Amino acid sequence: MFTVINECQSNPCLNGGVCIDSIDMYYCQCRFNYAGINCEYEDYECASTPCMNEGTCVDGIQTFFCYCQESFTGRFCERDVNDCEGVDCGAGVCIDGFGSYTCACSDRVAGTHCDRSKLTTISQYNSTKSDFIVSLK
Ligand SMILES: [Ca+2]
Ligand SMILES: [Ca+2]
């Protein structure tokens, strides 16, 4: 004589696992991606801090997602966004930065986009300066 006890009655299997009753014990058939006697484990894929460049890791089922800082992209935020894309530096050369760009201008031009002639700038400067000197006299 033995008493039949359904060990599954307490619903021991977590995360949607299916309980299989046995003699004096039970088994949990875990759903995909879950493990442990009671299907209590699901891997924390963010544990290895896979997101680079201060990206934020969000754990998923057997995967993770990286939310990147504005100037980075890619699955691991490993790639720097090319901030020079679509930028016209005129006679200068665009230098990509982190969330910004710089136009390196040639000797004859100036301005954020190398769109001002330095010669104009200097003559403007000189006229302003002479006006200033005149006003002092
Ligand atoms: Ca996970
Ligand atoms: Ca960049």
From TrEMBL:
Residues 4-40, 42-78, 80-115 form the EGF-like domain. SMART domains: EGF, EGF_CA. The keyword Repeat applies. It holds the Pfam family EGF. Disulfide bonds join C30-C39, C68-C77, C84-C94, C105-C114. This is EGF-like domain-containing protein. Keywords: Disulfide bond, EGF-like domain, Glycoprotein, Repeat, Signal. One of its GO terms (molecular function) is calcium ion binding. SUPFAM superfamilies: EGF/Laminin. InterPro entries: EGF, EGF-like_Ca-bd_dom, EGF-type_Asp/Asn_hydroxyl_site, EGF_Ca-bd_CS.
